[in-house]
C-alpha cells in the first residue's frame, strides 16, 4: 500500500531561501526527497507551520499515513508568532491521531505542543555530529531504534535542547551533554517519534550548514577561523562523494552509522515500516 506523507516546514521563507542558496533545497524539500528515496511509492506533500501556508482540517490531517516535521532554526523556548504557530499545528496533529515523526526542531515542536519546554544548550551550539548516543532501557526495545548499535554517531546541528519533558514522553536515547536525543510522545490520539539529530541529511549538507554558520562557529570557539571551518567542510564533502575514503573517516571519527545511507536513515526507515504495518493491520 502506498503511503501518503505530509512534510511540515518550520523555516521562515527567508530561512528556506537561504538554505536553497546553500545546498539547493530547503529542509522540508530535503526531507521529501529522502523519504521518496527510501520509499519510491510514497506520495509526499509539503506544508509550512509558520508562514501562513494553507492549513489542513483535522479530517484532512487524519487522512495522511504519517506526518513528518523537518528541522529548522526555530527556537521553541522563545515566545514568537512562529513558535506559537508551530506548536498549534502539532497539537492538531496529535488531535488528528496521525502518527508523526520529527528531527531536531521537529522534536522540540512536539515537546512544547505536548506540554514540555526547551532551553538553550548549556554548551552552546552542537555543530556537525552528535557522538556517543546511547539508547535508554526503554529505547533498546523501541521499534524506532531497531538496528542501532550500543552507541552511535549521527549528523546534528542545534543550539537548544529539551529541558522539561511533557507528561506523555518517554526518553529513548541520550548523550552526556544532550539529555534527550530521541523520544516518544503520546498525546491525545497521536503518537510522535522524534530525534534531536538528523537521519535525513547527508554529510555534504552538514558541510554546507557549517559554512553557512562559519562566523558563529568561530565566535563559539569551535573553530580557530573561517578557514578551519572550510577545511573541515571540504573533508566532509569528499567523504560524501566517496564514502570509501576510510582514511578521512578515521581522521574525523565517522563510521558506517553515518556514512552508509541505510544505517544513517535507520530511524526513518523504521518509522516508514511502522506506517506500512499500521496500514495493513
UniProtKB/TrEMBL annotation:
A single MF term (Gene Ontology): hydrolase activity
Pfam families xref list: GATase (PF00117)
Membrane-spanning intervals of the chain: none
Residue ranges of domain Glutamine amidotransferase in the record: 33-205
Superkingdom of the source species: Bacteria
Keywords carried by this UniProt record: Hydrolase
Name this polypeptide is given: Gamma-glutamyl-gamma-aminobutyrate hydrolase family protein
Species name: Mesorhizobium liriopis
Amino acid at each position: 500500500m502506498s503511503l501518503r506523507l505530509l512534510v511540515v516546514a518550520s523555516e521562515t521563507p527567508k530561512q528556506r531561501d537561504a538554505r536553497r542558496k546553500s545546498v539547493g533545497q530547503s529542509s522540508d524539500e530535503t526531507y521529501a526527497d529522502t523519504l521518496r528515496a527510501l520509499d519510491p511509492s510514497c506520495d509526499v506533500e509539503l506544508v509550512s507551520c509558520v508562514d501562513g501556508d494553507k492549513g489542513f482540517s483535522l479530517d484532512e490531517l487524519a487522512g495522511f499515513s504519517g506526518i513528518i516535521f523537518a528541522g529548522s532554526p526555530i527556537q521553541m523556548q522563545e515566545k514568537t508568532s512562529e513558535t506559537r504557530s508551530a506548536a498549534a499545528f502539532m497539537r492538531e496533529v496529535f488531535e488528528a491521531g496521525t502518527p508523526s515523526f520529527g528531527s531536531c526542531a521537529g522534536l522540540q515542536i512536539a515537546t512544547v505542543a505536548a506540554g514540555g519546554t526547551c532551553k538553550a544548550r548549556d554548551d552552546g551550539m552542537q555543530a556537525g555530529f552528535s557522538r556517543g548516543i546511547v539508547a535508554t532501557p526503554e529505547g533498546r526495545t523501541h521499534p524506532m531504534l531497531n538496528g542501532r548499535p550500543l552507541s552511535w554517531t549521527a549528523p546534528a546541528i542545534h543550539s537548544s535542547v529539551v529541558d522539561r519533558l511533557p507528561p506523555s514522553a518517554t526518553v529513548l536515547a541520550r548523550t552526556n551533554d544532550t539529555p534527550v536525543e530521541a523520544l516518544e510522545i503520546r498525546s491525545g490520539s497521536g503518537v510522535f517519534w522524534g530525534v534531536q539529530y538528523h537521519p535525513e541529511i547527508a554529510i555534504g549538507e552538514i558541510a554546507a550548514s557549517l559554512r553557512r554558520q562559519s562566523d558563529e562557529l568561530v565566535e563559539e570557539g569551535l573553530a580557530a577561523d573561517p578557514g578551519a571551518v572550510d577545511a573541515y567542510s571540504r573533508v566532509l564533502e569528499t567523504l560524501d562523494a566517496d564514502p570509501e575514503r576510510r582514511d578521512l573517516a578515521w581522521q574525523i571519527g565517522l563510521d558506517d552509522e553515518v556514512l552508509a545511507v541505510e544505517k544513517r536513515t535507520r530511524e526513518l526507515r523504521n518509522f516508514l515500516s511502522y506506517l506500512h504495518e499500521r496500514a495493513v493491520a
